[in-house]
Specification:
Blueprint lengths: L1 E12 L3 E4 L6 E10 L5 E12 L15 E9 L2 E12 L3 E13 L4 E5 H29 L2 H8 L1 H25 L2
Length: 183
């Protein structure tokens, strides 16, 4: 399974790392987060995507004229999670999102596979739903394992703060009393 789990539109900054939004000249790059769970090692991965504006229309690079961008990753890529950053994208400040048209995978054994946008979207929706279910189950389990004090402190953080402050005040007062008595 090859799954684009998320992406960020933006650009790399030498001072701040990855930043959302275009550069001062209007260039958008893309950072792509991928989950790969497969038995084969990927030799090359080619991701093709198209920029979309806020009303759902495809837009092109205003400087170079192209719409599709192709990003090639050289492996070996084994099962795991990856983040790939590409600074060269589109000059167009109206870009709001990206549609992934296809991912072409070439494996080390010579075989190849192409995953289309629809399949990438279906898999992403399934993965998001599965992740949400897993997070809900983990939260439910965490709440069951918490003791009464933890539930109380989570529900009443201000009272926890006040009680902690009171304990600190008592400790300070005891230290002061002991210091006075030993003089």
């Amino acid at each position: 399974m090859f799954l684009i789990t998320s992406y960020n539109l933006g650009h790399s900054s030498i001072y701040d790392g990855w930043k959302e939004g275009p550069t001062s000249s209007g260039l958008f790059g893309i950072q792509i987060n991928v989950l790969y769970r497969g038995g084969k090692t990927i030799k090359y991965c080619l991701i093709t995507c198209v920029p979309i504006n806020a009303v759902g229309d495809c837009v092109s690079c205003l400087m170079r004229g192209y719409v599709e961008a192709e990003y090639k990753i050289t492996g070996p890529i084994t099962s795991g999670t990856y983040t790939w950053t590409f600074d060269d994208g589109w000059y167009n400040s109206t870009i709001d999102s990206v549609y992934f048209e296809k991912v072409e995978l070439q494996y080390m054994d010579g075989s190849a596979e192409t995953i289309t946008g629809e399949k990438l979207t279906e898999d992403l929706q399934k993965a998001v739903e599965q992740q949400k279910r897993q997070e809900q189950l983990q939260e439910q389990l965490r709440r069951q394992q918490m003791g009464a004090f933890n539930r109380w402190s989570e529900d009443h953080p201000f009272l926890l703060f006040l009680s902690t402050l009171a304990v600190l005040l008592v400790v300070v007062l005891l230290i002061w009393v002991i210091a006075r008595l030993t003089q």
